[in-house]
Specification:
The protein has one helix and three strands; from the N terminus they run ββαβ. By secondary structure, it is of the alpha+beta class. It has one domain. A three-stranded antiparallel beta sheet has the order 2-1-3, covered by helices on one side. A hairpin with a 2-residue loop joins strand 1 and strand 2. It is elongated. The two termini are about 20 Å apart.
């Protein structure tokens, strides 16, 4: 099995607020475990954002990407 490499990810979440909508983008780098799928990584990232920023809970993900961090 190939060695896992660090991946850069970003996610943008829109949540309603009293003035309309709040749109925040989040990013980070992680090294997925062997066998990780895009869906499981999406869910892991979303859970981490909700822990970091409770105002994001229940918001709509409007953008998400994950790519190997090496150029």
């Amino acid at each position: 099995m190939a060695k896992q490499v660090p991946h850069f990810w970003f996610m943008t979440i829109q949540t309603p607020n009293g003035a309309g909508y709040r749109i925040n983008s989040y990013q980070g780098v992680l090294t997925p475990e062997p066998g990780t799928t895009r869906l499981s990584l999406f869910n892991e990232v979303r859970e981490e954002i909700d822990r970091r920023d409770p105002l994001a809970i229940g918001g709509a993900v409007i953008a998400f990407d994950v790519q190997p961090n090496n150029l």
